[in-house]
Amino acid sequence: MDIFALLEFPDLVRVGSVCTSWNSAYTSICSFEQYKCSQAPCLIYTSESAGEHVAFLYSLVEKRAYKLTLPELHIQRRYLIGSSHGWLVTADDRSEMHVVNPVTSEQISLPSVTSIEQVTPILDEAGAICGYHFSRHTAQAIMGQSSTYSLSALRDHLFHKALLFYDTSARNYFVVLIHNPFGQLSFARLGDEKWTWLRPHSYFDDCIYKDGILYAVTLRGTVIAFDISMTVVTTKIIFDSRSCYGNERVYIVEAPWGDLLQVRRPEIWISELPHRHGCACCATFKKTSWRIKISKVCLESGKLVQINSLDDHALFLGHNRFPC
């Protein structure tokens, strides 16, 4: 078991197919927190031609894709809103969220989307949920008119990012959800019946759990610490940024040497004018990044200190828990 836990994921899949006992060890390691070394990131994707129950895992190390068959999951219909510890946080076609292990096909349902502060179910004559009422209120104000969405359409407008963390004191996992309107923060432990809204701040873009504290960063770069271990959540502003909102993504990650790092990645829109049917009037747009700024978050002084090197480490950014 200890040797298997040191393997890269593609090699682990191979040894799991050798015999029954090795497959049992492989399945156990694919559970939460069983890896003993940092894994090179893999990309997961689906294809309409492959069917609803098939996903592909692309290894950046081997530069090849592995086919994963998930017979009990319509994985091709799911929206992927986050990944951590080898698990995926997905939203199904009713906008309900589930934590999924793409290797073992294990699935854990999260609290209903209707328990999120801004979401109210709409019931039909039989009492079944047929849609959702979405309110655009924050702890400070009502930020716009409410909307009504179908069961599947809500996920297009509600979710931004979800991350899975392990709480050693509670010996349980919890999911942090960044969602609309305007970057709200909610969390739920596995087994909870509802989501807990972390008010009053807004415009969150990323978060990380370290040493029993949840650290979240806003689009302005403000870093806020939440102690969610008690019934009443306590909040502390670590760094209060005065910068204006811009077209950028802001991340907070833990470096291999233990420091918290704030990463700012400005984005610009590039317009492309493809000629279709002899006409260039249908413009498409794509985002691109032109620089990355990395700063150490000094928890004691409440300051940011810019750094210019990660030494021999690589940083991967996306809608996941970022490896570095």
Automatic annotation (TrEMBL):
<dbReference type="InterPro" id="IPR036047">
    <property type="entry name" value="F-box-like_dom_sf"/>
</dbReference>
<dbReference type="InterPro" id="IPR005174">
    <property type="entry name" value="KIB1-4_b-propeller"/>
</dbReference>
<feature type="domain" description="KIB1-4 beta-propeller">
    <location>
        <begin position="57"/>
        <end position="321"/>
    </location>
</feature>
<dbReference type="Pfam" id="PF03478">
    <property type="entry name" value="Beta-prop_KIB1-4"/>
</dbReference>
<protein>
    <recommendedName>
        <fullName>KIB1-4 beta-propeller domain-containing protein</fullName>
    </recommendedName>
</protein>
